[in-house]
Request: fold
Amino acid sequence: VVDAVSDALSDGGNVDDVGVGAREDPGDDVLGLVRSLRRQRGACVRFSRHVDAGVVAGRLISVLTAALGANHPQCGAAKLEAAESAAAAAESSASVPGYDEASAWARPAYDFAAAFYGSQSLPAARAAWCVAEALRRADGAAAARPMYAQALGATASVLGKTHKGVGAMLSETAELSRLERRLEEADALAREGLDIASGELAAARRGLDEADAAAARAMQRREVTIGEHGVDYLPNELLVALDRGKELARARAADAEAEYAERATQVARVIHAMGRLPDAESFLRRALFAGEKAFGPANPSLAATLAALGRCALARRRPEEAE
Reply:
């Protein structure tokens, strides 16, 4: 175990730096190292340092394999984390330092998840998506398509066909089809993803209305009791909870607006490629409206949507509006 720890930290200093050998039970040192590596990876993910997160996950795999065995669930989970870090690090290109090393864990992670949790489980779906991403970058979209389908099917079977996680996968698959010029297929997938986002947005808006209404009723009741009895019977903890509920509802609504804007923009891209400019412009305006509600009218994230609207207007011979 000590040798494995040393190998895992071979580029990070002498193993004695973490105290291995200083205690009678090396198992204590291994547990401490595992916790440290997990914290380090978590920090890398939070700051979007996905390549570094993949490297740390690889070290964690080395330690867990030596301490627990390659088939232990903790080791399998670490492999999945390494594969996901690789997928996040190379969203647009496989020429990211450390990508090959981290993406090599995608297939072992899938094999473990399918055997341990089942092929229709969420861990297997996550791993299948990582395998598909690695295949797409190495061998092209056609080689990756079966694993994308496996990931999508497993996610839908666990979360339901209308879950936003399914919508995200549909969106990714639609973009892949668009890049392959399979436009009819891309249109169907993108619209299905948009339908899911529409449902999420409607639910989020209802939740916001309900949170506002609950707070208004509580404040009205408070005013009545103070007016009638001169005493505030409403606990302060309840007021704090109501305010917190409104904050959460607003955050959920903003996230749903942003997701809807992204999905509507994708539909617009597909039907623009099909030459249906009026429909594309309509979806872009929906995306802009949702984006403004999510981020505000002056947010830089709306620039791409405004530029796309400008291109549509120019193509439809409205140069002044386009400008």
User: Anything to note?
Assistant: The radius of gyration is 25 Å. Residues 11-24 have pLDDT under 50 and may be disordered. Residues 183-229 form the longest helix (47 residues). DSSP finds 14 helices and no strands in the chain.
